[in-house]
Input
Amino acid sequence: MIAFTVRYELWSDGVTKKRWLKLPPGTKIDTTDPDHWVFPVGTKLWKEFSTPDMLRPFETRYLVKLPSGKWDMVGYAWQHEADVTIAAPGGLTDIHATKHDVPSTEQCHVCHDGVKDGAIGPSLYQLSKQQIDGKPALAELFARGLLDKKIDEIDPPGTGTVQDALGYLHANCGHCHNDAGLWATVVPMRLRLRASDTTPESTWIYSTTLGKKAKHVLPGGVDTIVVAGNPDVSQLYFRMAKRDLEQMPPLGTEDLDSKGLATVKAWILGLK
Ligand code: HEC
Ligand code: HEC
Output
């Protein structure tokens, strides 16, 4: 198993996460489309959840690509007393007296089928500037024969707050709001970065949000996705700042991400 980290983490109410990847011997990840990597049958991935005050993890999530090309997805809750985990395909709420929920298999699919091929973290932007065993992650995966070609690291376009906001939205929203997965046709807005993005203005995050009317107008009338200089009437920010049926992301979080909100707010305030 290869332990990996992602450059921009999905906000999960502040819990600590660890991630691992394992490919079947002799297989490689197909990166022909740099924006949508395709994984070999038999690929396995794990993500483990814990809090700093707990000695052991409380949930481990598992993805495996089946011979059919579909992914099996399930969350396992740790039973600390017996040192075993129990599969929870139906999901569990508030485990180990925390607010943490194990998502149901159906909920795993809502997020993970949003990308073209099931796995979200192992990808161009997310592995850039990360390390595997102390070496640059993308180069190391290639050196171990797990990537089909050598790939250069990439940064989200822009600098400072602009770059931070683009990375944040890519990681927290782009796995649903893109052109290839389950939600590709639900709204025209796209919040995923592409390998071909060179400037902030060339990204979908600018071209499909700035001054654009939302397909879904919320009660109260916040109808524009991003209004330059005005976060409060920008539906993108407005829905990030909610935790109810209209919240974004729609699942996987009960607490506001104050740092993420501050980043996106500063970005919108700086837009002209
Ligand atoms: C709210 C959306 C969401 C839900 C629900 C969700 N995931 Fe994920 N998952 C993500 C995102 C985004 C990443 C990558 C970013 C990260 O790890 O911080 C990820 C990462 C992972 C990883 C590490 C490999 C990878 O694809 O990056 C595994 C394994 C995983 N999830 C399994 C599951 C399983 C199993 C379930 C259901 C029990 C589940 N996830 C539910 C969004 C979600
Ligand atoms: C699990 C998939 C998923 C994730 C993750 C997600 N969204 Fe959404 N989003 C949807 C779906 C489905 C809709 C359409 C239904 C609706 O409007 O509620 C939507 C609609 C929207 C809309 C309305 C667009 C329009 O034209 O009407 C905005 C704005 C939005 N999302 C912002 C975000 C932001 C910002 C994030 C990240 C912080 C995010 N979303 C993460 C699934 C997702």
The pocket of heme C (ligand 2) is lined by residues 110-111, 114, 172-173, 175-177, 183, 186-187, 189, 214-216, 225, 235-236, 239-240, 248-250 (CB under 6 Å). The chain has a mean pLDDT of 96. The radius of gyration is 19 Å.
